[in-house]
């Protein structure tokens, strides 16, 4: 990785937009392509991937959710485990800001990785002063 390589952390909102080919999906696809080509470092916290999994399971069933995760795992997106450092950072964000706990994991991961959060979720306006947001 070069020092100037862009780093992004995907929020579940962005992943769902991509999966459902909704507004913003094109930008997510561009970032995924750039990650595949080694021009962008992309990651997702496993908490947020779990969020996508349960939403997909509710809407489309367990098999569809499993297929999506299998397909997503082939992409050049690093899965970030919820280490104690990230849990602690997410808890601090939750204590200070009106964000969902899952959203706090995206923000905490981005802060730890010096990455932008890729999202279209307006809840992130509450932490724009703390973490860079790439709006889709």
Please, could you describe this protein's structure?
The protein has a single domain, classed as 5'-nuclease (Rossmann fold, 3-Layer(aba) Sandwich). Strands 3-2-1-4-5 form a five-stranded parallel β-sheet, sandwiched between helices. The two termini are 25 Å apart. It has six helices and five strands. The radius of gyration is 14 Å and the shape is globular. By secondary structure, it is an alpha/beta fold. Its cofactor is Mg(2+).
Keywords:
single chain; 136 residues; alpha/beta; Rossmann fold; 5-stranded parallel β-sheet; globular; PIN_dom; nuclease; Ribonuclease VapC
Task: Summarize this entry quickly.
The protein is an alpha/beta fold and 136 residues long. The chain has 6 helices and 5 strands.
The profile of the biggest β sheet is: 5 strands, parallel
H/E topology pattern? EHHEHHEHHEE
Percent of residues in helices comes to: 40-55%
From the 3D structure, determine the CATH topology: Rossmann fold
Keywords: Hydrolase, Magnesium, Metal-binding, Nuclease, Toxin, Toxin-antitoxin system
InterPro entries: PIN-like_dom_sf (IPR029060), PIN_dom (IPR002716), VapC_family (IPR022907)
Protein name: Ribonuclease VapC
Function: Toxic component of a toxin-antitoxin (TA) system. An RNase.
């Amino acid at each position: 990785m070069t020092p100037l390589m862009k780093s992004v952390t995907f929020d579940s909102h962005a992943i769902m937009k991509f999966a459902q080919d909704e507004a913003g999906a094109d930008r997510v696809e561009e970032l995924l392509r750039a990650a595949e080509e080694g021009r962008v470092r992309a990651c997702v916290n496993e908490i947020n991937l779990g969020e996508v999994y349960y939403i997909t399971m509710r809407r489309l069933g367990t098999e569809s959710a499993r297929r999506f995760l299998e397909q997503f795992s082939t992409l050049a997106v690093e899965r970030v485990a919820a280490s104690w450092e990230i849990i602690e950072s997410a808890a601090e964000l939750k204590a200070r800001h009106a964000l969902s706990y899952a959203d706090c994991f995206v923000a905490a991961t981005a802060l730890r990785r010096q990455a932008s959060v890729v999202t279209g979720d307006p809840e992130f306006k509450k932490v724009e002063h703390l973490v860079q947001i790439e709006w889709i």
